[in-house]
Structures are given as structure tokens and as C-alpha cells.
Amino acid sequence: MAQPINYDLAKDALQKLNTDDTISSAHGLLCGFYCVKQDISLDDWLNEVLVSIDLNNILEKESHQILAEIFNNTSEQLTDPTLNFWPIIADDMCSLREQANTLVDWCQGFLMGLGLSSVQTSDEQVLEMIKDISEISQLEVDLLDNEENAQDFYEIVEFVRMGVLFIQETLQPSKQDFISPTQLQ
């Protein structure tokens, strides 16, 4: 089972490379790619995110390895029958405002990934979910750190998380056999 990806580790890795993207946006882009085509490669993703990379530079090589792990982990998460997918956004150690901003970045990246790969569907539920994620990507975030806002935020994250899994499964049905609920216990 794929583990959640550490936001700070991923953010630090990407910051050491030649890019203007945030890790949240870059991960959203990757997830958007996966939703419309399963045969993407690490290079497909990195070519959209990075300007260049020098694998002779030890810091860039280490960062590249972390991004490769993120790539593989994301692939596992999106096909995990236990719905163990999580967008890479700031965790609850960060302010609610930062968490929300990274979710907006993630949604923008996701939509870009869908667009770069050209979503072709007439499924009304998928189109509605994409529209909802698009609306989330345009939110102006100025949240106070309080329990009510935190609860609302976590509900939005869950909505996005499940929406992405729904979009991915609808556009790229898994090749896995059905797993009964009793096998998951």
C-alpha cells in the first residue's frame, strides 16, 4: 500500500530544481495526466514541471530521485483499491491559509494536467466534478485558523480526493479485479 507523500520533503526536493511550480501544482498536474492516460512516464511529467536538470549535481540528482518516488507512489495511490490517494498539500502543521493555498495550487495543476492531455468524455458526472474542482481552483483563500474553517477545509479536501479517484476510475477503468469489502478488513 502506498504511503502518503511527505509535503515538506517533496516541497524541498522541487525547490532545489529549476522550476517555478509548487509541489502541490506539480503533483496536481501529475494526477491530471494519470486521469486521462495511464501510460505516462516520469519524463512526461518532469518535462512539464522542470526547465532543466543536471544529474551530475548531487542535490539535483537527490531531488530527481525524490520526484521519481513521488511519481511511483502517485501511480500506486491512484490505482489502490482501498482509495489510499492523497493530494500533496500542506499538512496541519501549517496554517489553514497555507493548506488552502496549496489545495488551490493542486487543483490548478490538476486541471492543467487534464487539459494538456485533452479530456475527452461526455460523462456528465465527470464533467460536473471537473467543473467543481475548477471552482475550487479559483477560490480566494483568506481563512482564519479555527475549528469550523478547518472542518470545512477537510471536507473540501475529501471532496477533491474522492472526485479525482472518481474521474480517474471513470476515464481509466482499473484492470484490477473487484475486491470484496471482507478482503479489506
Molecular structure report:
By secondary structure, the chain is mainly α. The protein has one domain: Four Helix Bundle (Hemerythrin (Met), subunit A) (Up-down Bundle), CATH 1.20.120. The chain has helices spanning 7-15, 23-36, 42-49, 58-79, 96-116, 124-137, 147-171. Helix 5 (96-116) runs parallel beside helix 7 (147-171). The radius of gyration is 16 Å and the shape is globular. It starts with 6 loop residues before the first helix and ends in a 14-residue tail after the last helix. The relative contact order is 0.17. The model has no long low-confidence stretch (mean pLDDT 85).
Features of this protein?
185 residues, mainly alpha, Four Helix Bundle (Hemerythrin (Met), subunit A), 7 helices
Short description:
It is built from 7 helices and no strands.
Topology:
Layout lengths: L6 H9 L7 H14 L5 H8 L8 H22 L16 H21 L7 H14 L9 H25 L14
CATH architecture field: Up-down Bundle
| CATH T-level topology | Four Helix Bundle (Hemerythrin (Met), subunit A)
Which CATH top level class fits?
Mainly Alpha
Describe the global form. globular
**Whole-number radius of gyration?**
16 Å
Number of strands: 0
Give average pLDDT, whole number.
Answer: 85
Return the structural class.
mainly alpha
Termini distance?
Answer: 14 Å
The CATH homologous superfamily: YgfB uncharacterised protein family PF03695
Number of domains: 1
Strand content: under 5%
Main sheet attributes: strand count, strand direction, barrel closure? none
Q: If helices are DSSP runs of H or I spanning 4 or more residues, what is the number of helices?
A: 7
**Secondary-structure element order, N to C:** HHHHHHH
Helix content: 55-70%
Outline the low-pLDDT stretches: none
